[in-house]
Amino acid sequence: MCYNFIEEIVRVHKNEESGRLMANFIDFQDVSKIYKSGEVEIKALADASFSVMEGEFCVIVGASGAGKTTILNILGGIDRATTGRIHLGEREISALSENELTLYRRTDVGFVFQFYNLIQNLTALENVEITTEMGIDPLDPTQVLGKVGLAHRIDNFPAQLSGGEQQRVSIARALAKNPKLLLCDEPTGALDDDTGRHILQLLHDTCKESGTTVVLITHNSVIAEVADRVIHVKNGAITSTELIENPKAISEIDW
Amino acid sequence: MKKTFRKNVIRDLTSSPGRFIAIFIIIALGSGFFAGIGMTAPSMKWTAEKYFEREKLADMRLMSTMGITEDDVKAIASSDGVAAVMPRYSLTAKIKYEDTLPVFSIISLPKNTKASNASYLDRLTILEGRMPKAADECIIDAHAEIPIGEKVEITGETEGAEISILKKRKFEVVGICNSSEYISFSRGRTALGSGEIAGFIYVSEKAFDSDYFTDIAILFDESSKISPFGSEYEELIEEKTDELERLTEERAVLRHDEIVQDARDELSDSQAELDEAQAELDDAKAEADSKLADALLEIEKGEAEYQSGLSDYEANLAEIENGEAQLAKGRADIEASKKQIEEAKAQFAAIPPGVPPERLPINPDELRATIEAGEAQIAAGEAQLNQSEAELTSGRAALEAAKLELDAAAEKLASGRAEYDENAAKARTEIADGQREIDDGQKKIDDGLAEVETIETPEWLFFTRDDNPGYDGFKPNYERISSLATTVPPFMFLIAALVCLTTMTRLVEEQRTQVGTLKAIGLTKRSILMKYLLYSGVISLLGSVFGVIAGVLLFPGRIWHAYSQLYSMGDLQIHLVPLTTAIALIAGIAATMIATFAACYSEQKAPAAELMRPKAPRAGKRVLLERIPLLWKHLSFHSKVTTRNLFRYKKRLIMTVIGVAGCCALLLTGMGLKDSIRDIADRQYGEIVQSDVTVMVDDEATSEEIKSIDKEVGKYGDYLYTSESAITVKHAGKKSNAITVYLSVPKEPEKFSDFVIMPDAKHLGKNINLTKLPKTSDEPNVANGVISKKLADTVAAKVGDVVNVKLASGKKADIFVSGIATNYIYNYIYITPEDYEKTLGSEPVFKIIMLKSDDTSKPAVDAALTKFLETDGIDYAYSSEEMKELMNDVSKNMGAIILLIRLMAAALAIVVLYNLININITEREREIATLKVLGYKKIELFRYIFSESMILTVMGTIAGLFVGIALHSHVMNAVEIDEVAFPKTIHPLSYILAVLFTLICCLAVNIMMQPKLHRIEPVSSLKSPE
User: Fold this and answer.
1) Best interface-test mutation with A: which of B632, B645, B646, B933 has the largest number of A CBs within 10 A?
2) Is the ipTM of this complex over 0.95?
């Protein structure tokens, strides 16, 4: 108890120390994740600690199986850490119950998937409406779709859209609920360069314009160049966290 | 097969136990039910066949109107193809036991009742005691419930044969048995008593004394080689009937001649006797005549003698009287003489004395001499007179004596005459009597001779096993199950196959990438196909084998058990019908494997590379409903998704709807079967029969008793006398089955509709009135009748047709179908007493009283019943309520099979729904995972999946109700029997229950699937789509 209190003080103190006005938004503290498969134990994440400030565009980079998806899952509340604590703002996600986690995902987190994960028999608009139906402070789905540049395709079914368009719908779906945190799992992974770039731009713009914190995972280190903060993951451990003072514009990076 | 490949198959099997178990159970249910129900009827048949063979049930039984002689027996026994014959004596009689008079069949047993005796047919199974040995012992029907040691007495009221063929009238029960001749509890009908034979008694041959047998049981060589229920057997019986008909016709002629000859001989013997008697009588008459003549002669002689005696006497009497008169005259003369003498004396005295005689006018001397002479003369005269007088007196005395003698003789003669008269009269009457007797005898002989001329050739009656009441009922019973087996289980099987098909198709589609990979790494199409065929083959084989074994072990025995209350044929012997077994085993496997093959085949057509890529998700489509924006806009998001989902996977929609519809239809059919069967009694005694009590008047009730019965019954309400007789009916024109029905004749037809309602089967809502028949025949010898709907259907009679009816007594009549009335239990023909008399020539016997009680409450009706049963002259009385309950009990034997159907339907419904929902979830795992990531709550997810399956279930349920109505009606038609017309209605409650059960199943399965829903990791949404 006492220890917790001290830690809390330390955490707040750290924020002040960083000198930024923004509060320490995401806070990973000694988070480990161990998958048990029969006799075999696989340590997907070992004592990972990092923090992300509110409104940051954070990119987690690492090779396949490095543990970056585990971080995203735990952060998104769709998986639980074996040990360690995760805070989002004032809330300790690692202490939430199953139902609270559901509510957390429902209201606070927006997900963008590598494979879009759109509901096939819903139109673009309806796919976005899914979230607004349950969101606490939803945005207007048509407007959001307009913002992602799909105003003309709102009545199309996913199968009628290109990959990039589908990903835009996916982003619109995530944004429509006006999330505090936008989690993107290789959002450009299934897209060609050009489209990927557009999507990245869209995510970046969203981050900067609406102040939504974006955490994006990718194995493509080039993307890291546009981030405010880059976290490198390797073999389940965080090897380094770097803050980039002047991130490159997306148009500048070489894909 | 490679090791790794095998592992892959085994892992596929074990990795999704839900699907594995679902397919296994569905196939097991389908094939188990199919095999189990399918095997029931053949097993029943098999059991019966074995039973008949073991107990040597006769193929045919012949009776002759004039009995069967030893020669007949020999002729039949030596006829072609006859394996064994058993001649015997039998009759149907009322027996007296305690205070009851039930009708029994009394049948003789062969001398040798050992199992080794090949001509011991229709064997008995001794349950208790032993076979009768002495002439006054018997073994009795177990059904009669008369214990060993009791005595039964045969009364003189018999049918079939005269009581005189029985040597003994009283039998002691020494054993209790079942008879193979009576496989069911029905013992047959009779014209005696209540019309129902209550049981049988077997006695030894010694108990009978008759020159001829009453019937002969025949067993054919071939019958043990072929099934008695098949057409081959029918042909055999037809053929043998023809052969034996020819034979018996010959025998009949011989028998006729024999009988005629016997009669003639007997008559001529009588004639000779009579002639002799006549001669004797004539002799006697002659003798009597002569004797009488002699007697008369003597009497006459005596009379003549008497007459002459009398005349002698009279002559003598006259003589004596004459003599007496003369005597009197003589006395008078003497007196006169005396007087003269006195005068003379006086004169003499008057002569003065001394006067000389000369001077005197008379000489005194002279005078004196004269006086003296006179006096002497007088004295002489007097003496003579006295003598005469004495003589006369003695003569008179003699005459008096003769007179007495004569009187005595006269008296004797009179009595002799009387005696003669009497004797003569007596002799005359005696002779006249004798003559009359002889004349009578002669007349009899003459009549007899005339009668001999009219002696008809004896008629042989043929009875086959079909005429056996038990046998007769067994066939429809097993056929009913057989028809049930051809309706419900295949339907169920179809559903099961369909669901398996969906599942397997789904499985292959799911494994699309794996197929692609396997193909890419170089496996041949064939081995990939093998993999899935093996998978589906193993599951379906396991399911089929398990199902068939379980089905065959469970169902037939269970159903037989229900029927064992009806039949006494021992335990069921399971008979595996190869075809049914094969279908049950193969069909399930085939359906599954063909589905697998088809799915694999279409998948495999694509190149490996395309297969490895995720299949382009099926595009969402707009549904028709969206074209109506007004409606669509108002739908919640949820409803929109659900609606679109429903129509997105049309195949799944159709499969689910069909699957659920099938289960719901089966459930409804099961419930409906129960309703229909249970309804029968309610409808019969609610809508048709309006009377509350039926009273059966004793055959022997006296008219006083009937009067008091009328009075007694009249106290409780309105009543109507009717006559009811068992008849057989055939269509007059068409070839149709003969079925047994009741001919009902109400005494007052105008009152009949108050007691029995005859709803017009052709015009719903209308009732037929017996006194105002809609259509009548003009034919003079045809009765107008209303017939039951079921009867009309069975004999294919329409309004306006004519049916032939035959009474138990053999009387026949034609009945014009004036109307067809709805009726549920038994079949009736209703006619008026006038028509009965017109066509059958006699007045109907009204022995049944229908009573409509004023107070219909149970205690009131029960009180009336108790009172009636105590009343003299009432044989029996029962309430409609009792009958209703009894019928309900009877229908319970169908209950077992119906319960099975319902259980199976319920089980199938659960498994089908489980499987379909399982597929639904598995198929959309990714969608569900995504929704989870997006923050769907458990309840929202549940609704998302559930509302879809619920809507499908509702659609299926609605479709199922329609299918169920059709299936129910179809099944009812299949299982119907002649005696009973099942109402083809299903209760609203059954609809509700079928719907509710299906919906609850759906809800339960959905809830059951919840954990599976929850087990889906949201993380899995991040994986690349397979």
Assistant:
1) B933
2) no
